[in-house]
Amino acid sequence: GGIITQTPKFLIGQEGQKLTLKCQQNFNHDTMYWYRQDSGKGLRLIYYSITENDLQKGDLSEGYDASREKKSSFSLTVTSAQKNEMAVFLCASSIEGTGNQDTQYFGPGTRLLVL
Amino acid sequence: AQKVTQTQTSISVVEKTTVTMDCVYETRDSSYFLFWYKQTASGEIVFLIRQDSYKKENATVGHYSLNFQKPKSSIGLIITATQIEDSAVYFCAMRELITGNTGKLIFGLGTTLQVQP
User: Fold this and answer.
1) 8 Å CB contact of A56 and B37
2) Which residues on neighbouring strands pair with residue A79, listed in sequence order?
3) Is residue A99 very low, low, confident or very high in pLDDT (cuts 50, 70, 90)?
4) Pairwise CA distance, residues A33 & A109, whole Å
């Protein structure tokens, strides 16, 4: 078994501010993901990373940067927070391949509110 | 584009009964993977069960089982002997291949289940 931790749990920012969210996993999984969850819109992929130092854009990458300096960690940066923005950011990880290895496991989320 | 649709916005049941949640999907892939996740009131998303499209047998894990109807592109989640703590939002998801052997999940909008005493 393993665990995914996300910090911070809650993040309150100001319009235009650069905000960084962090994710750590001890599954020893190769692939990590950042999803955004908005009310009524399900989860959408922002960035993913297949291995250390790899970065790939998802469907919602505009306005975000990401960093994968270690296999166990994946950071997401909101480059300029939008006023009244409210969303939950979820980190996930998986071992990519066939069979049960490609199940994605999620962290507890970071709740963002921009004033 | 691949798509996952959950038509039931919310369901309310009495505890100890069986509930079925619907999910239909669209894909061009001949081989694909389907998942159900549960999001609790705290926001945590928990993996419940999966179905690989090449497997004919319906997956079962504990009191969760799937009703996989491939010709109808349907993957229903069945929860038997529901408990109050099963109250949550349930998401259906499909893995879409994006790069090499890496996939992303396409999620439905979720079904809120409320289990009443």
Assistant:
1) no
2) none
3) low
4) 12
